[in-house]
Design brief:
Structural class: alpha+beta
CATH topology of one domain: Alpha-Beta Plaits
Strand content: 5-15%
Organism: Mollisia scopiformis (Conifer needle endophyte fungus)
Distance between the termini: 33 Å
Largest sheet: 5 strands, mixed
Strand order of the largest sheet: 5-6-1-7-8
CATH class of one domain: Alpha Beta
Helix content: 40-55%
Number of helices: 22
Number of strands: 14
GO cellular component, one term: nucleus
GO molecular function, one term: damaged DNA binding
Protein name: DNA polymerase kappa
Length: 618
DNA sequence: GCGGATCAC
DNA sequence: TATGGTGATCCGC
C-alpha cells in the first residue's frame, strides 16, 4: 500500500471492502492458504475496473457501507440505554437452548473434493498436472493447481486467465457428474440408508447406528467409508464428524482435501472450538453478515456472547436465535432423505447479450415460459403465483409477481400472465434493456395424485388382493407411483358445490380466462392500448375505455387503465372462486401435506429431487 | 403479500 | 471479447 500519498481514509476503506467483495464468495474455501490474497485482489480489481459489473458491485458496496453505518449508529444509541433486560432475555434463551443440546448422535458431513474437476481428471489424466477449470464463461470449479494461482469458483473466465494465463477451461458435462455422484451414493447408503443429499457432491449421514451395529468407532468408520469410496470410484472425499450437522459441516472443511476431522461430542470441547471460529466459517454467514458482525466487534463465534444484549435489536429475532446457536455450537441432529423436504418453487432463468427490443424481449419471455413448462411437468407442479425476474444491463435485479386466476404450468399461460409484468417494467424503465430473464412458480400445487388424494381422505378402491390399504403400503407406493391411474372413488358429494353453483363458477372461470386473453391482446397487440407510449397520441379520440372485467368506464389513460385492470384481475373474491372451481374440477386440491419445517437453521440448502438438483460451484 | 437482499452450492 | 442458475429465507413495508 502506498503510504506516501494522502488518501481520504473513508475512500480507502470503501476501496478495501469492495476489493474484498470482488474476491468472491468462496474465499474461505480450501486451497487458498498459500495464495497471496493481496496480489490476487489487485489483479481482479484491475481486470474488473470500469465494467458494468464492477460499477454495480461498487454501488452495492456503498449501500452496504451505509447500512453498516446505520447499524453502528443504532448500537451507539442502544449503549446509552439500560439493556439489562435484553441481556437477561438472552441468558434465558441460552439456558433454554442448552437444554436442547443432544450429544448422543454422530453426524457426518462428507464433501467430494473439487468434484467436477476430479471427475474430469478421471477421463483425461493429462489434466492432473496442469491448472484447469470446469465451466467457461464463469468457473464452476477448478482443480487445486488452478487454486494456487487464486482461481476459484464463481470467477469470470477472463479474470481467471489473468491470474493464470495457462489455465485450461473445459466445458461442463453435467450428466457425467450425476452418474459419478450416484456411484458415491451407492456406497454411503450402506453407512446410513437415510443419508441426506445436500447437493450433488455433499451429503449428511447419521452413523450412530452403523457404529453400534458394527462395534466400530466413528473415525474408524469414516476412514473406512472414505477408503471404500476412493477404491470404488477413484474420488477423494473430505469428512467432518461431530454431534450435529452444523458442526460436521464446519469440520469437513478442516482437513480438505482428502482428509477428515472429528470434533468430540463434548460440551466444553465444542464451546472451545466455537470460541475461536471466524463467523464466516458458519454455514449461513456470508460476506455481508460477516462485515456487519465485524463492524460491531464480533469476529469469532465466541465474540457473539459479549454482544448478546444488542443482537436481536440490531439484526432481528431470527438472526439473534441463529447467532446464539452458533455461540453454543448447536445444530440439527436429524438427517433425512432430501426427497422428504417440501419443494417451494420451480423456476428457470438465463443470461443473454443485452436486449431491449420489445419484440425480442417477448420472444425471450415466450422461450423462458416454455423452459419453465418443461420443469413444471418434470416436477409435477402447478404454481398459484408467477414471478418474473429481470436483470438490467446494469446488473440491477428486479422481480414482479402476479397471482393468475388459476394455478398455471402450461407455457401459454405462463407467458400470458407474465407479459403484462414485462410491459409494466417497460413503462417503469423506458428503454428497458435486459441481460437476464427468469420465471418462477411459487405456492405450488402438486399434480402427483396418489399422495395428495390420500391426504384429503379419498380412499383408493380395494386393491386386487382385496386387503385394505395400510398406511405403510400407501407410503411405500408413494415413492414410485407417478402414473396417472384413475382408480379413485368419486369425490364425496358434500365436498362439491351444488351443481348450479358449480356451473356458475365454471362459467365465471371460462369467462375470466377469455377476458384475460382479450386484455392481453388489447394491451399488447391491439390498437386501442399499446405498450409503446409514443403511439398513444394517434388514438386519443376516445375519452373512456370500458373495463372488460367490471364494465365500468375508465379514463383513457393507458397507465391508469392497466392499473385498474390489474386491480380487477387480482380481486381476492374472483381469485378464490376460480381457484376452488379449477381445483375441484381437476380433482387436485393439494397443498401436499406439510412434511418438514426447516428449523432456525440458516443454511439454505436446496432439498428436492437429487436427480434434478443443479450444482455449479464445487 | 410483495419486492429486495442475502446465502448456499 | 467481458461476471451463472436454482432454490430458500428473512426483512421492511
Amino acid at each position: 500500500m502506498a503510504t506516501d500519498t494522502p488518501i481520504d481514509e473513508h475512500a480507502v476503506k470503501e476501496h478495501d471492502t469492495l476489493k474484498y467483495s470482488l474476491l468472491g464468495p468462496s474465499l474461505t474455501k480450501s486451497g487458498q492458504d498459500n495464495v497471496d490474497q493481496q496480489k490476487v485482489s489487485e489483479i481482479i480489481y484491475n481486470a474488473s475496473k470500469g465494467s458494468k459489473y464492477f460499477n454495480n458491485e461498487e454501488s452495492r458496496d456503498k449501500n452496504l457501507t451505509q447500512k453498516i453505518d446505520r447499524i453502528l449508529t443504532k448500537k451507539k444509541q442502544l449503549e446509552k440505554l439500560d439493556l439489562a433486560s435484553d441481556r437477561r432475555k438472552a441468558d434465558d434463551y441460552i439456558a433454554e437452548l442448552e437444554l436442547t443440546r443432544d450429544l448422543s448422535q454422530w453426524i457426518v458431513h462428507i464433501d467430494c473434493d473439487a468434484f467436477y474437476a476430479a471427475v474430469e481428471e478421471l477421463d483425461r489424466p493429462e489434466l492432473k498436472d496442469v491448472p484447469f477449470s470446469v465451466g467457461k464463461g464463469v468457473l464452476t470449479t477448478c482443480n487445486y493447481h488452478a487454486r494456487k494461482f487464486g482461481c476459484r469458483s464463481g470467477m469470470a473466465g477472463f479474470v481467471a486467465k489473468k491470474l493464470c494465463p495457462q489455465l485450461i477451461q473445459i466445458p461442463l458435462d453435467f450428466d457425467k457428474y450425476t452418474a459419478k455422484a450416484q456411484e458415491v451414493r451407492e456406497i454411503i447408503v450402506d453407512y446410513d440408508p437415510r443419508f441426506e443429499s445436500a447437493s450433488i457432491d455433499e451429503a449428511y449421514l447419521n452413523i450412530t447406528e452403523y457404529c453400534q451395529r458394527n462395534e466400530i468407532g466413528p473415525e474408524e468408520a469414516i476412514e473406512q467409508l472414505r477408503r471404500e469410496v476412493h477404491e470404488k470410484t477413484k474420488i477423494t472425499i473430505s469428512a467432518g464428524i461431530a454431534a450435529n450437522a452444523k458442526l460436521a459441516k464446519i469440520c469437513s472443511n478442516k482437513n480438505k482435501p482428502n482428509g477428515q476431522f472429528r470434533l468430540a461430542n463434548d460440551r466444553s470441547e465444542i464451546m472451545a472450538f466455537m470460541r475461536d471460529l471466524p463467523t464466516r466459517k458458519v454455514n449461513g454467514i456470508g460476506r455481508v453478515f460477516e462485515r456487519e458482525l465485524d463492524a460491531i466487534g464480533v469476529k469469532t463465534c465466541g465474540d457473539i456472547y459479549g454482544y448478546r444484549q444488542f443482537l436481536s435489536k440490531l439484526f432481528g429475532e431470527k438472526a439473534f436465535a441463529f447467532l446464539m446457536s452458533c455461540y453454543l455450537g448447536l445444530g440439527r441432529t436429524t438427517v433425512q432423505p432430501a426427497e422428504e423436504y417440501e419443494r417451494k418453487s420451480v423456476g428457470t432463468e438465463s443470461t443473454f447479450g443485452d436486449m431491449s427490443d420489445p419484440v425480442e424481449l417477448r420472444d425471450k419471455l415466450r422461450a423462458t415460459a416454455e423452459e419453465l413448462e418443461k420443469d413444471m411437468v418434470r416436477t409435477q407442479f402447478k404454481g398459484r403465483t408467477l414471478c418474473l425476474k429481470v436483470k438490467l444491463h446494469t446488473y440491477e435485479v428486479f422481480t414482479r409477481q402476479v397471482i393468475p386466476p388459476k394455478a398455471v404450468y402450461v407455457a401459454d399461460d405462463l407467458y400470458k400472465y407474465s407479459v403484462p409484468m414485462l410491459s409494466k417494467l417497460e413503462q417503469e424503465f423506458p428503454g428497458l434493456r435486459l441481460r437476464l430473464m427468469g420465471l418462477r412458480c411459487t405456492h405450488l400445487v402438486s399434480m402427483k395424485k396418489p399422495d395428495t388424494m390420500a391426504f384429503f381422505g379419498f380412499k383408493k378402491r380395494p386393491n386386487e388382493s382385496g386387503e385394505p390399504d395400510s398406511p405403510s403400503s400407501t407410503a411405500k407406493r408413494r415413492a414410485d407411483t407417478l402414473e396417472d391411474d384413475d382408480g379413485w372413488e368419486a369425490i364425496p358429494e358434500e365436498l362439491l358445490f351444488e351443481d348450479a353453483e358449480r356451473q356458475e363458477r365454471e362459467d365465471e372461470l371460462n369467462e375470466l380466462e377469455s377476458l384475460s386473453q382479450e386484455i392481453d391482446k388489447r394491451r399488447h397487440h391491439g390498437k386501442e392500448i399499446v405498450p409503446n407510449p409514443k403511439k398513444q397520441e394517434n388514438q386519443e379520440e376516445e375519452e373512456w375505455w370500458d373495463c372488460p372485467i367490471c364494465s365500468r368506464p375508465q379514463a383513457a389513460n393507458e397507465k391508469e387503465f392497466n392499473e385498474h385492470i390489474d386491480l380487477c384481475l387480482s380481486r381476492q373474491t374472483i381469485r378464490d372462486a376460480v381457484q376452488e372451481t379449477s381445483d375441484l374440477r381437476s380433482r387436485e386440491p393439494t397443498p401436499a401435506p406439510k412434511k418438514v419445517k426447516t428449523s432456525n437453521d440458516r443454511s439454505k440448502g436446496v432439498p428436492g429431487d437429487p436427480k434434478q438438483r443443479r450444482l455449479f460451484f464445487g
